Amino acid sequence: MTRIATLSESRDSCHNCRLRTLCLPDNLPKDDIGKLEGIVQRRKPVSRGDYLFQAGQRFNSIYAVRTGAVKTSTLMANGDEHISGFHLPGEVIGLDAIVSRDHPSSAIALETASICEIPYAELETLSDHTPSLQHRLMRIMSRELLAEQSTNHLLSRRSAEQRLAVVLLKFSERFAERGLSALRFRLPMSRLDLGNYLGLVPETMSRTFRRLEEQGLVGIAGKEIEIVDSGAMRALAFGAEGSQVARA
C-alpha cells in the first residue's frame, strides 16, 4: 500500500530523528551531533497562523522544521503579501538573515509545527571548536540556498501550467526525500497561498489545476494530489530541458 506523504512524524533527539540526514550535515560524527544537540532548543509547537519570526526582527537563531510546514513571506509596498517559500520537515529557515542580522522575511506556520531553534552565536562558537561541523554546516547552508535559487530559476518565464507542474514535481521530490510517497501527497498550503507563490490569481489557479486534471496528469481531491503521469508532467514542466533538469 502506498504511503501518502504527511508532515506529522517526529523524534525527540537529533540522534533518533528520521529527518537527521536532511537538516544535519551529511555523515556528521556522533560526538559532533551530541555537541550540536546540546545547543538545540525545542520550542513548544507553533500554531497555524502564528509567527516563528517577523520581517525586521533581529536575527538570533536559525530554525529547523521538525513537523508541520512553514511559509516565508514579505510585505510589499502596497501592503500585499508576497510568499517566497514553503518549508517542510528537515528544512532550515532563517539562513537569509545571517549577513544582514535582521530577518528580511516573516515565517508563519501553515499548520501546527514543531520547531528546533539553534541560537546562531552558540552555533558559531561550537563551529569554531569543531572544524568538521563548521565545514558541513557550510554545505547544508549552501544546499538550502541553491535549492531555492534553482526553483526560482525554473519558475521564471513559464506558463501557468508549467509553473504549477514544476512546483508539484518539486514537492514530489521533497516528499520522496523524506521516505514518503512521491506520487500521492497532501499540500500543506492553501491554493490561495500557492497561487501567491506562483504569481497566479485564484481564478487562474483553479483553471490551471483543472487543466492538469483534464489532461490526465494529476488527480486532485482537496489538498491531496496524485501524480498520474510523471513523465508527461516533466515534459510539460521542463520541455526541451528534459527530466535531467527536473532532478537537479
Automatic annotation (TrEMBL):
Residues 158-231 form the HTH crp-type domain. The keyword Transport does not apply. Residues 24-107 form the Cyclic nucleotide-binding domain. Keywords: DNA-binding, Transcription, Transcription regulation. This is Fumarate/nitrate reduction transcriptional regulator Fnr. InterPro entries: cNMP-bd_dom (IPR000595), cNMP-bd_dom_sf (IPR018490), Env_Response_Regulators (IPR050397), HTH_CRP (IPR012318), RmlC-like_jellyroll (IPR014710), WH-like_DNA-bd_sf (IPR036388), WH_DNA-bd_sf (IPR036390). The keyword Transcription applies. The gene is fnr.
